[in-house]
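Appendix B, example 12.
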Amino acid sequence: MRFLLVEDNADLAQTVLDRLKIDGHATDWAPSLGSAWDYLAVAQYDVIFLDIMLPDGDGRDFLSSFRAQKHATPVIVMTARSAVSDRVALLDTGADDYITKPFDFTELEARVRAVLRRQQGASVNLRSFLDLTYDPATATVSVSGDNRELRNRELRLFEIFIANPEHVFSKAQLVDRLFSSSDDISENAVEVYIARLRKKIEGGQTRIETIRGIGYRLTAS
């Protein structure tokens, strides 16, 4: 998944970035509201993590404007405010969830899964396509009931395909979803991860097909 972190505390931001990178996620860091708008103008995100007090404004105003522009990207507000009235006001402004600082990363990850389930209208975690199944809660991938072990970046690539079977993704789109803007990555890197993922899910009813000159898709084998 790709995240946008809007947070002016450099130490906290780096901690979050490092943790998400270990998990194989791509994250862009915006230390101000202005830079956040710049990122949103050129990239799409699965979830936005939003601080309230930024050097160039209030995160609540940003959130209000973001929703007024009909953007549906889930927003999790990171706040030091613990009063019920403050949390209710955030939800009413357009936040999908909130987490109180300081927070545990396992809680943050759980809240990400929860807002994505709500956005997708799903009450269960399990995703499947033919004999291919995926449980995001446990990061378990199985082919015909046989569990397969995927490394972090392979798993993030797999998440893209299993959430959109039969959809064709170009290399550029996959780079955009897999890597942050600060990563110096060529589109050829996608070929490496595609090759690895193909080996991990082979032997079942699905395959990752190359659509020459266009991109890749998860389809029936």
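The chain has eight helices and 13 strands. The CA atoms of residues 30 and 87 lie 23 Å apart.
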